[in-house]
Amino acid sequence: MSDRTSPRYLTTLAEFACNTQLASLSDRARDRARRVIADCISVIAAGMQQREMQALVAKHLAQAARGNACVIGAGKRVAALDAALLNGTAGTWLELDEGNLFAKGHPGIQVVPAAVALAQENGASGADLLLAVALGYELSSRISRAAQVKLSVHPHGTYGVIGAAIAAGKLKGFGAAQMLELINVAATMGMATSRQTLLDGATVRNIFTGHSGYMGLMAARLVECGFTGEIDGVSAVYGKILSDTFDPAKVVAGLGSEWLIAQSYFKLHPTGRYAHSAIDALEDLLAGVPGGRLDVAQVERIEVKAYKLAAMLAEKNVVSSFGARFSVPFALASILVHGRSGLRSFDEDAVANPQVQALAKRVDLQEEASFSARFPAEQPVDLRIVMRDGAVHTGRCVVTKGEPANPHKPEELTAKFFELGEPVWGKPVTRKLYDGLMKLEDIGDFRSFADQFTL
Fold first, then answer.
1. Hey, where are the domains in the chain?
2. What is the rounded average pLDDT for all residues in the chain?
3. Cβ-count burial of 141 within 10 angstroms (0-12 exposed, 13-18 middle, 19+ buried)?
């Protein structure tokens, strides 16, 4: 370990990671961490059924190391490193993974695959897994919040490496000196990710979250072997490379009393988060229409005013299912045509639907500067649908459904888990798995718990 003088904020983080116990978490943070783990597992299982993921699993497992960690949704077991890589990659495919506007990304799917795989490998308790996920999520989210990362950088595959590493260090019982070294080592192991990937519908973007889990576990292995990091790798990367502004004091402000994990959101629509605001506005509009449906053949145009990040999702020429998840025009058109926003509304058949494509071309999406100024505390979108007969229908979103100020009902999140899990595992296994995850602290050996299932 290095004996160089480290900045106080980093030593505070390391000590907090090592000394915090599960009882220190607020009730809301503990519950949210439990649900983040469950949500990630169901989303991974569903994403693993995609054609590209099945091909990757087959090729990767041909040379992967043996182990006890589940490739979730594939019914296979491998070493933790490989499981974290594959599960993290599958977890973002359907755009249903949990996220956090204050962390400016999706911490859960970058931390959970690594922590779950290592907990299986080491036979950690459910309580230890829960705490490791909460800490990895929390501390990496605080680092992201303290930076102003360039908009051109995709948040996946960046600070998530630190989160996965902290979770791994906690599960391995690292002391404060090792944890400090681990944070600095992990800080420099992120990717130079491009946000343009999602705008282009480029599926290489999905490996970014797999990278976070894999490299987080690798960072812990490096520290165990004596590798060292910079004195302040976090400030170097997040204050000079990915961002030009980084506030160390903001990282530790309210540490232990304010839990960012308690301010996360869950998704019920399989789209990029910012499209959800426009979908909510559409649902608000349709609630005022008799029968909740419009005659799409009579729609003259759709006008959308949105905050900047939603307005960026303006692609009308959608050519793939993955690209459809990052297009507000496509989302609105497909939901109007199909009557709902489920997975089928964003699959290849929906992309090939000429009625959807024609309607998407009639969507005018513009940024409203005053809306951008209200983000992230609010996520305003105004929607107008003008019919050919001159009738006008309006809808609005102020706070997107799923945010802490407008949360989903617990039964909605439970229904999501079963909707995604049952086609993969069947109803009895899905029920037993869900019930166990909702009482994670009662599981004495997570490896034994997972061994009950062919996940």
1. 8-268+413-451, 273-397
2. 96
3. buried
